[in-house]
Amino acid sequence: MAKTRSPETLPPPLMTSEPGSFARATIVRRKPQIIREVLADNDYPPEIRAALEALTAEIAGEPMRPLAEPAPDRDEWQAQWCPYAGRTWLDVPWYFAEAFFYRRLLEAVRYFQPGIWQGHDPFAAQKRREIDGPGSALQLAAELLAGLPAERMAAARMLLYASLWGNRIDLSNRALLAQGGRAPGQTSDILVDDSDRLLEFLARSGPHGRIDFVADNAGPEIACDLLLADVLLDWGWAAQVRMHLKPYPFFVSDAMIQDAREMIARLEGEAEPRSRAAGERLAGRLRAGSLQLTTHPFWASAYSFREMLDGLSGELAQADLVILKGDANYRRLLGDRHWAPTTQLAEVTAYFPAPYVALRTLKAEIVVGLAQGQAEQAARQEAAWLTSGRRGLIQFVG
């Protein structure tokens, strides 16, 4: 891999203080909207409702306060908050603001505290709506399985694209829901498409011992990821697939272990034969250990991947390939910084411990690995090309 940059040469982080930025808009508009949706979906008592409304008022202009509840991760979050003590939510690095918002929301709803609300996912109702009904995860899975070609490389490419475009819509960015649902995008919308090299690596360089997914969303996306994992195991392209999931609710729709298990169970209970068979295979793989669902506190932290703990980095180093899903993981991979679009991805991420592929639809003002002039051309075609979710990336660093 290319030589990594030292921390002293890293560009500045994306900040919520940047006027007119998407980062600022997500804090000013989207975070209060998420709180309103949580209030609408959950029958919380007055004290929890008051705590959520106080968080809304704090975001509007008060200094960002630290965690107050007794919890195992309080000291860790305190250390991350300390450099920004006294600042408002509109004067901090964007990824920290987003990650800390979700941890503060869980404090407000008493997710970690003894009582009836302990362990209750405040986003559960929204996730359930993503599983059933028109355009849902189960419908998407059935359509994918019905349309898979017999030829392996063609089928693998279809599932790879489905895994990419399954990330197009997520519940933390509801504005995208008005832009046409979850239909897979055109291949012309993939700004960097390393699928040929990736599929060659999977099919010709194997058999691989283990392939890891660093998962993103529940619902349609985790359904697509599970179907891709199923064929990787079925074809012998991997002896084991390990899926890294969130330890607690995060970014509204991010998948936890229970979300992946629920999706497998729902597929297993489908009347449609292909969906049911896929669910039964996946359930059998879980029992046999060839499919593993795991988590770690790091996945729901404010740290960048460059700051990954040695133990977790060592675990990923044992994988033959890591599949990094989604926009937030891409941002963490790049440190959520102002890189030039033509910066080489391998140079920025030489620290990463294993070969990886990033499958990401663009929903943040950050991208690398583009050809000279490609960003300017995309901007001429669409002003919001970096944030609309229309365009995607399949970037393989092997």
What is the number of beta strands? 7
Widest beta sheet: strand line-up: 1-7-6-5-2-3-4
The oligomeric status of these chains comes to: single chain
Distance between the termini: 8 Å
- How many domains would you count in the coordinates? 2
General description of the model:
The structure is a single chain. This protein is an alpha/beta fold and 398 residues long. It folds into 2 domains: 7-108, Transcription Elongation Factor S-II, Chain A, CATH 1.20.930; 133-397, 3-Layer(aba) Sandwich (Rossmann fold). 43% of the residues lie in helices and 10% in strands. It contains 15 helices and 7 strands. A 7-stranded mixed beta sheet has the order 1-7-6-5-2-3-4. Helix 6 packs parallel to helix 9 and helix 7 packs antiparallel against helix 9. The chain is globular, with a radius of gyration of 20 Å.
In short:
The protein has 398 residues and is α/β, with parallel strands linked by helices. Helix content is 43%, strand content 10%.
List keywords for this structure.
single chain; alpha/beta; Transcription Elongation Factor S-II, Chain A; Rossmann fold; 2 domains; seven-stranded mixed sheet; disordered N terminus
Q: What topology emerges from the helices and strands here?
A:
Elements: H1 22-41, H2 46-59, H3 74-81, H4 94-108, H5 124-131, H6 137-147, H7 152-165, E1 190-193, H8 195-204, E2 208-214, H9 220-234, E3 238-245, H10 257-268, H11 273-288, E4 291-295, H12 310-317, E5 321-325, H13 326-333, H14 345-348, E6 356-361, H15 374-381, E7 392-397
Parallel strand pairs: 1-7, 2-3, 2-5, 3-4, 5-6
Antiparallel strand pairs: 6-7
Helix pairs in contact: 1-2, 1-4, 6-9, 7-9, 10-11
